[in-house]
Amino acid sequence: MQILKSYMDNQLPNSIVKYLKKYAYDKWKIYGSNGKYKSIIVIPAIDELENIKTLLSSLIQNEKEIFPSTLILFVINHIVSSDADIKQNNIKTIEYLKNIIDKKKNEDELSRMIINSDLQIAFIDAASEDFELDDKEGGVGLARKIGMDEALKLFDYGSSEKNILICLDADCTVSRNYILTIRHTFDNHNIHAGYVNFAHDKTDDEENYKAIINYEIFLRYYVLALNYAKSPYAYHSIGSTMVCDVESYLKIQGMNKRKAAEDFYFMEKLSKITEIKRINETTVYPSSRGSWRVPFGTGKRVTRFLEKVQNEYLLYAPESFTILKKWNEVFYSDEILSAVNYLNNAKNISKTLLYFLIDNKFEENWNKILNNTRSLKQINKQKQLWFDGFKTLRLTHYLRDSEFPLINMFDALDELFSLMQIPFEYKNTHEEIPSIKIQEQYLTKLREIA
Question: 351-359 and 389-402 helices cross at what angle (nearest 10)?
Fold first, then answer.
């Protein structure tokens, strides 16, 4: 790939130029920005014109002082084979954003508000003919990557402040303190990666509301259970909540191109180089809608719930996380054992854990680590790299399939709360599926602690 002349004209740091040369695409360009920014919010969007207006309505309510140093960067995208109505919506979206950027007269009140404000908006056209995404690679991962890579060209590298990449989705809204809180958290606490607190929108449709409560409980239960197990991967991996500084983005070779779970793998790579912090003082409100856009995640889970494909009121058994906790205590201890001793410890914890480690060639991999690593610090790092977030999830599934099947959602919550000594007055005592009011109480408690 050729390095664009503009890279050098903008006097980008060598690390940025090298990254762009090795990992970025030259095909897509930003429309509407000629400034230098400290924070860039990257928003992939497909068939989202009305949702973009709703999102902009919430963003413009943020503190005005942060607008000049912040760019809202949309990536309007679809794959070549997308339906005609999706393509038409995207072209209308591009026209809508272009009119705002060019400050053209518009009868739309929101457009006039944005034009008269300092809110900085730009977009990348990955939807017009010759710029559509390839059917094979196109999807949310590639769209995020294009936006985040292009954003690297627009940061103010002459400042000593952190340059921050913020991920958001077009079907979200945000709190009024969203941008400033993220900015202050990174600047004042010297963090490198994190995720913003989230709460799915409450809907008027009762069944849809049940679906989103169910899904958010599922998400938060897993993170809480990982916290109980002392896992280094106890954080949320939701695309619309991810934040990192440019330094960390470069270290992990940027965003991946996955059509789904791009957020899981992106956060996992970040967690291997820095601690993932939760940004509690502001909130992202993801949409509660069903969706066709990705093969799993919020939209797919809501759709599955509404179609009643399976019993959704099930969670991993807490016993699985007790096994994980005991294994983490042994494996992440500073005491370095031989592969045989680790396997013996695993056998004493759970034979299923032992079989999992054998199936994953633990002995062979651990011996390689010992032979190629010298210091205790390096060995501890290799532990986290080998027993990573994906392997942790695979162990959870292995235990589910072999020994501890899924159990009732609210029984699992009660048991985990008890194990963690978390007080909760609405303990479910007799109903398989308690009332919506009680479910809300469970979710409220989970939002406080996970």
Answer: 130
Q: Which tokens is 416 given?
A: 């985990």
Which H helix or E strand runs over 376? helix 376-386
pLDDT of residue 429: 62
Task: For residue 299, count CB atoms less than 10 angstroms from its CB and return exposed for 0-12, middle for 13-18, buried for 19 or more.
Answer: buried
Cα–Cα distance between 73 and 169 in angstroms, integer?
Answer: 11
> At residue 253, what is the residue type?
Q
Task: State the Cα–Cα distance between residues 263 and 256, nearest whole angstrom.
Answer: 9
Res. 8: pLDDT tops 50: no
Closest-CA residue to 213 (of 404, 441, 450, 36): 441
Same domain, 393 and 431: no
DSSP calls for 106-132: -S-HHHHHHHTS--EEEEEEESSTTTS
Any bridge partners for residue 38, and if so which? none
Cα separation, 91 vs 237, in Å, equals 30
What is the number of residues in the chain?
A: 450
**What share of the chain in percent tops pLDDT 70?**
95
pLDDT of 405 above 70: yes
Confidence (pLDDT) at 35: 84
Q: What's the number of domains the chain is made of?
A: 3
Domain match, 55 and 109 both: yes
In a domain, 342, yes or no: yes
Q: Are strands 30-31 and 276-285 parallel, antiparallel or unpaired?
A: unpaired
- Looking at the predicted structure, is the pLDDT value of residue 135 above 50? yes
Condensed to tens digits (0 to 9), the pLDDT of residues 202-258 reads: 888 899 999 999 999 999 999 999 999 999 999 999 999 999 999 999 999 999 999
Helices (H) and strands (E) in the chain, counts: 19, 11
Identify whether the C-beta of residue 130 lies closer than 8 Å to the C-beta of residue 107: no
Over 50: is that where the pLDDT of 416 sits?
Answer: yes
| C-alpha to C-alpha distance for 409 and 88, rounded to whole angstroms | 42
More confident residue, 105 or 63: 63
What's 96-109 look like in SS3? Answer: HHHHHHCCCCCCCH
Tell me which residue range forms the domain holding 363: 318-402
- Rounded to whole angstroms, the Cα distance separating 53 from 159 reads 32
> By CB neighbour count within 10 A (0-12 exposed, 13-18 middle, 19+ buried), where does 422 fall?
middle
Instruction: Report the distance separating Cα 329 and Cα 401, nearest Å.
Output: 23
Distance CA 345, CA 134 (A): 49
Give me the sign of the Cα torsion angle 349, 355, 359, 363: positive
CATH code at 275? 3.90.550.10
Encoded amino acid at 409, one letter: M
